[in-house]
What we know:
It is a single chain. The chain folds into four domains: about 1-50; about 55-70 and about 325-450, Elongation Factor Tu (Ef-tu), domain 3, CATH 2.40.30.170; about 70-105 and about 290-325, CATH 2.40.50.100; about 115-290, Orthogonal Bundle (Helix Hairpins). It contains seven helices and 14 strands. It has helices at about 1-25, 30-50, 115-200, 205-290, 335-340, 425-435, 435-450; strands at about 50-65, 75, 80-85, 95, 100-105, 290-295, 300-305, 310-315, 320-325, 330-335, 350-355, 370-380, 390-395, 410-425. A six-stranded antiparallel barrel has the order 1-10-13-12-11-14. The longest helix is centred in the middle third of the chain and has 86 residues, at about 205-290. The radius of gyration is 61 Å and the shape is elongated.
Amino acid sequence: MRMRLFDSFSTARTNELKIAIGLAVEPPFWVRRGLRVMGGIALAFLIFLFLPWTQNITGVGRVTSLSPDVRPQTLHAMIPGRILRWYVQEGERVQAGETLLVIGEIKDYYLDPALPLRLREQLEAKQNTAAAQREKIRSLEQQVTALREAYRNSLERARNALVQSELRYQADSAAWEAAKVEAQLAESQYVRQESLYVQGLRSLTEFQQRKQRYQDAQARLLAAQNRLMISRTDVQNARIQIDFVTADYREKIAKAESDLQSAQSYLYEVEGSIAKLRNEITNVEQRWRFHYVTAPQQGYIVRAVRTGVGEVIKEGEPLAVFMPANYKLAAELFVRPLDAALLKPGKEVRLQFDGWPAFVFSGWPQLSYGTFGGRIYTIDYVDNGTGYFRVLVEPNPTEDKPWPSLLRMGGGVRGWFLLEDVPIWYEIWRQINGFPPDMTAQFYQTKASPTK
């Protein structure tokens, strides 16, 4: 009996101990629920890490025009003057060539309204002077030609006179030689006749006749010698005459050529003055056109910079801000040099414009709302001076949603340049290591390509 009571007591005690041990080991309900939630979150995060993520580069900028000739521009004064009248109002639409304002002159040289007429009169006078100078040059050229011809004729005449003098000299020289021989013969006969007369072999009359013949021979010899000397002098004079004619005509020709050169030099000066007057007339006519500031193309007068009538303005001073009407919208975004190396023309861009609300997921552009499509048109080859590169973005023609028609030049814009699709865990790893987006994409494609 005691044994049975002891056994039942032992069994009850054992059951109570088992129940106590079980309650102590099993966790509470809220712990079990927390563990399930954390496991679900971990599983969801693990799945999230393998979701695709579109790499992108962010840039901010402003709205502009694709073509430089239709961007906002400033109209400047081409000449100094004073404002006489405005013909348009701010915000008014104008046509190409329409007069915007008129500028009056302030320089005393241009105050004469008949200045072009005066300049044309001066030009006509200079042209008449040039014509007269050309006639003078023609006359001087004829004079030089006549002097050259006269020089040739005079030189030929002097040379002929020299030849005649030389021939006369030769004849007189021969006559002198003959007279000398005759004088020597008469002398010898006179000496013999004198000797015979002294010896008494000849009469006085014969001696006197021989003496007379001797004296006549001496006289003829002296006359022939005189004529020879005169002929020699004529030859020397003829040679001197040739030198004189040469020197005289060379002097005359040189003087005439000097006058000709002076006339041509003066003609060149007159022609230079004519060209200068023509240039001045053209400049005056062009300057008078600058009195009227006109619209370069169809557009709007955004803002007048100088407004007062009678206000004096300087050359090159801004007058008004002009906005062309026919423009093609574009966006200029600025990116870092590290990001600019990864971009190229044709890449897609998502844009958010100021004033148009948007819900943006940069990594999931297909889930974004309120953004507009674009593509890169060009990338600057140099930075903008602050270390950033400008990227010009045009509307994407493949997009069905056009850009807003109410966009204004200069409005703010934010853009996301879409690159490659990679898993999110790769993007996190890239951000932690500071690698460029494209490097990670290429690495991922290289790793993934063998398993495809």
